[in-house]
Design a protein that fits this description.
The complex is a heterohexamer, with 2 copies of chain A (130 residues), 2 copies of chain B (85 residues) and 2 copies of chain C (119 residues).
Chain A (H helix, E strand, L loop, with lengths): L2 E6 L8 H14 L3 E7 L20 H12 L2 E5 H6 L5 H6 L12 E3 L2 H9 L2 E5 L1
Parallel strand pairs in A: 1-2, 1-5, 2-3, 3-4
Chain B lengths: L2 E5 L5 H7 L5 E4 L16 E4 H6 L9 E3 L1 H10 L2 E5 L1
Parallel strand pairs in B: 1-2, 1-5, 2-3, 3-4
Chain C lengths: L3 E6 L8 H14 L3 E6 L27 H4 L4 E5 H6 L12 E3 L1 H10 L2 E3 L2
Parallel strand pairs in C: 1-2, 1-5, 2-3, 3-4
The chains are: A alpha/beta (130), B alpha/beta (85), C alpha/beta (119).
Chain lengths: 130, 85, 119, 130, 85, 119
């Protein structure tokens, strides 16, 4: 059994990459492999907002990642620099930057790019979805 | 290093293919599966079945298909994967 | 005379999700009594394939909504003949909502419309 | 002198279209033309978040639109359906959808696609930036 | 109807040009300005000067240029504009 | 032996803003003592043009940051020869940070690296 990490850079709202990444994650977990971390970068971080509100008959990517991560105990990490730029922030960062509000889903965390490098070095396979 | 190239954008096929060596593998996913109707199949080229089905193209391709289970296995059979964006 | 709008679908579905959002513009403008044409060219011809099943990847299938075009009084729904045949597709693989038309005709509609949107 | 409206569908974080639209808006206003409305659609609505926080040495597109609109009295309208899907919401819509937070910049408003059609019919020119 | 075609994606040039009639005008903006080094100039083809300068390409193009003032004027000189995306 | 990473710049600057974010990955990985190669191919060769002035459109000029590559110990910085000449560009128009290299060499580096990123 292998340890995977994923790098997800796909825009959740206008491309397919996040759907593909979720399908890939579910499949590898079903096969008994381990998922260490999903690192969100570039427009991929947009999925980490808890106030994303798709029409009720459409899939909620944010909630799906959250549920899957809790169920299988892996990390959902959004890169802080690109997240802040894109209006994705937690309460701590919001306060530090004097922003009036925050929107990070509690299943996600914001951290530095070092978490991507660590995932690369500590996983058997890293697969990118862009 | 035996590499799995994962291509999702049909417009980048030429770029991607020209970086490949003979021991490498190509998997078409997302909108790149449309290429399976337009290009010659090869022994090291695959197309993702679920993405064909999603688009109503499941009966057309002469290419070898992989489902998601096969996709995960390909990433393990190769030494690394490159998502060509 | 009412204003005219052409919406041009030129991208395949699901890889980019613009098809659905472009369709919504057409339906809204139709409710304002604009004269609408829906044009499917290049990889946009894949929007009209029958038997799409994106639900197996948890994506919403918006192709049935193309059947609503007629309901909204949108009568000019054209698919580019050359782009179809270049992709090895034939009429019997398509939803029965569009007329097959040569480029010259489609280009004329683009030229004559007051507004033209792509996404 | 002519009346313009703009349709802006470009992702503010990963493409150039919003920069182009602002430059175009500034130029037409300098020439004495009127700008009626900028309608944001698709990924274009992402610019309407007041908690977008680019690095301090980078241009803040949200604040630039806001300042320009107040100065020249034109409307910044984000399409409600595509905005909600992308996690852009005001207090009213947040409450209606039971969301824990809102992020719409006060210079922007959320409204229906009818505002685009109206802009088309009531302007001399509509120019799209995608 | 005399149409201004605004193209920002170099990969869509062929599509866009094939929809144009002889009375139409083309303006290359954003990354599409790169095409001005690769394609033959024409009397109804223009390239946006600020986007050339932004990319360090200001001296290369043989194409006719328009600055943003000229861009606004083109939208008024034509009956409508089409942003080819 | 330390792990190796190749980052491939294949898009022109400003139209898409991926260049800067890809560069940040390379600089971070260098800080982790990974063995980095920065490769410029296709329209990515425009990333290295001198005299970029995106500030006239209020965009940040990230091209000076490419000069930081050497500072971070990234010594393999290659630009594709064929892609340069196909675009009518010559070495004296470029920032002095990259070596001009044939495709075969660049492909070999892609093949040998433990990780390869594009954006």
């Amino acid at each position: 059994m292998a340890i995977f990490s994923l790098l997800v850079t796909a825009n959740p709202h206008s491309s397919q990459g996040q759907f593909s990444a979720i399908q890939f994650a579910k499949t590898l977990l079903n096969q008994g492999h381990e998922l260490k971390r999903v690192f969100f970068y570039a427009d991929g971080v947009l999925v980490a907002s808890r106030i994303n509100c798709p029409p009720s008959d459409e899939y909620n990517l944010t909630k799906t990642w959250a549920k899957l991560a809790i169920q299988h105990d892996f990390e959902l990490t959004a890169c802080v620099t690109v997240a802040m730029k894109r209006g994705i922030t937690n309460a701590t960062e919001a306060e530090r930057n004097a922003l009036t509000g925050d929107n990070l889903d509690p299943a996600f965390e914001i951290s530095g790019l070092g978490q991507l490098t660590e995932a690369m070095l500590e996983s058997d396979r890293l697969v990118t979805f862009g | 290093m035996k590499t799995l190239y994962i291509l999702n954008n049909p417009q980048h096929f030429k770029q991607c293919a020209s970086a490949m060596t003979e021991e490498d593998t190509l998997l078409l996913i997302e909108n790149a599966v449309l290429l399976a109707d337009q290009l010659e199949p090869r022994s090291n080229y695959f197309v993702l079945e679920e993405d064909l089905i999603a688009r109503g193209l499941s009966n057309n391709a002469e290419w070898q298909t992989k489902d998601y289970q096969g996709f995960v296995q390909l990433t393990l059979d190769c030494d690394k994967s490159v998502s060509w964006l | 005379m009412s204003q005219s709008l052409a919406v041009i679908f030129n991208k395949a579905p699901y890889g980019t999700q613009s098809g659905r959002e472009l369709l919504d513009i057409a339906l809204m403008a139709a409710a304002f009594d604009m004269n609408i044409s829906a044009l499917f060219i290049d990889d946009g011809v894949y929007q009209l394939l029958e038997n799409q099943q994106p639900d197996i990847l948890n994506m919403k299938n918006h192709s049935p909504t193309f059947k609503a075009l007629e309901l909204y009084g949108i009568e000019t729904v054209l698919i580019n003949q050359e782009d179809l045949s270049q992709r090895g597709l034939s009429a019997d693989q398509l939803l029965n909502v569009a007329d097959i038309s040569p480029s010259s005709n489609i280009n004329q509609i683009i030229s004559r419309s007051d507004f033209v949107f792509m996404l």
